[in-house]
């Protein structure tokens, strides 16, 4: 029997690029999806980052719109890597919320997720 879905935050399929950085190193990666609690990337190659050290992620939405997150590696397979968001600034939350609203088509659902994230 499949396990019940435990996800509390909606993932938005958002095929784009995300720049991961750790110290002085940076990796340009293919973003698969994003949520208020993290992101999933295509594992194109072995990126070579330290798995026990936090990373920064930056998703460029437009000329002046970016989502910045502090991340830790949550899971890794040969094809994908999932990261948990450990910190996000207010401006990035605003951009991410709007992205979720547009993709879910339900502003109230996005508001519930923001509230749940804050209370968690």
Which fold name corresponds to the CATH topology?
A: Thrombin, subunit H
Beta-strand proportion: 35-45%
Unreliable residue runs: 1-7
Strand order of the largest sheet: 1-2-3-6-5-4
What's the shape? globular
Order of helices and strands: EEEEEEHH
Molecular structure report:
The protein has 120 residues and is of the alpha+beta class. It has one domain (12-119): Beta Barrel (Thrombin, subunit H), CATH 2.40.10.220. The protein is built from two helices and six strands; from the N terminus they run E-E-E-E-E-E-H-H. It has helices at 90-104, 107-119, and strands spanning 12-22, 25-35, 38-42, 55-60, 66-76, 80-88. Strands 1-2-3-6-5-4 form a six-stranded antiparallel beta barrel. Helix 1 packs antiparallel against helix 2. The longest helix is centred in the C-terminal third of the chain and has 15 residues, at 90-104.
